[in-house]
């Protein structure tokens, strides 16, 4: 039970970090003066946990506008897409929700998205017989694949 809870916590932490990196002005963070508690070993940890809890509250109280704008049928398709491609087919590590969502809504990748959805919906027995792993590679595997070329 604790392993599942830790995994969910880690996934939420990764999403929070991605959100933080995307919307935070890094210059202001570097120039922020260090307070007198800097010698306390838990100061940074406690500050991070406080900010993450604050961020969690913000995310939970403000649903994603892109997802909310989808029709009910498209929402089902979106959540099925996220669930189906949540693991890397190469290494088995979880894919970032943020990246999958970005792929789903990226206008320049609509053709790729249509093909991924088509492959996701194949229910052919022969196709499953050969145990072909389809999916979206995680960040690390994608980097490795692109560097090998």
Structure explained in plain terms:
The protein is mostly helical. 66% of the residues lie in helices and 0% in strands. The protein is built from nine helices and no strands. The protein has helices spanning 2-23, 26-31, 43-61, 65-68, 72-84, 97-105, 110-120, 125-129, 139-148.
Reconstruct the topology from this structure.
Blueprint: H1 2-23, H2 26-31, H3 43-61, H4 65-68, H5 72-84, H6 97-105, H7 110-120, H8 125-129, H9 139-148
Task: Give the assembly state of these chains.
Answer: single chain
- One letter per element, helices H and strands E, the order comes to HHHHHHHHH
Shape from CA axes?
globular
Computed CA radius of gyration, to the nearest angstrom: 19 Å
Parts with pLDDT < 50 across at least 5 consecutive residues: none
Strand percentage? under 5%
Measured distance between first and last alpha carbons: 42 Å
Task: Work out the count of structural domains.
Answer: 2
Instruction: List the total number of helices.
Output: 9
Biggest sheet: strands, sense, closure?
none
The tally of strands reads: 0
Q: What structural class do the secondary elements suggest?
A: mainly alpha
Overall mean pLDDT stands at 76
Helix content: 55-70%
Keywords for this entry:
149 residues, mainly alpha, 2 domains, 9 helices, 0% strand
């Amino acid at each position: 039970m604790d392993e599942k809870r830790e995994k969910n916590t880690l996934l939420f932490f990764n999403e929070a970090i991605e959100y933080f990196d995307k919307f935070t002005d890094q210059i202001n963070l570097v120039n922020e003066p260090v307070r007198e508690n800097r010698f306390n070993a838990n100061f940074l940890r406690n500050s991070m946990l406080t900010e993450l809890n604050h961020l969690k509250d913000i995310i939970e109280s403000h649903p994603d506008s892109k997802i909310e704008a989808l029709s009910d049928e498209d929402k089902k398709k979106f959540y099925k897409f996220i669930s189906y491609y949540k693991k890397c087919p190469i290494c088995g590590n979880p894919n970032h929700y943020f990246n999958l969502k970005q792929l789903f809504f990226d206008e320049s990748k609509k053709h790729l998205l249509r093909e991924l959805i088509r492959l996701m919906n194949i229910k052919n027995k022969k196709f499953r017989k050969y145990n072909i792993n389809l999916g979206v590679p995680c960040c690390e595997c994608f980097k490795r694949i692109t560097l090998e070329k």
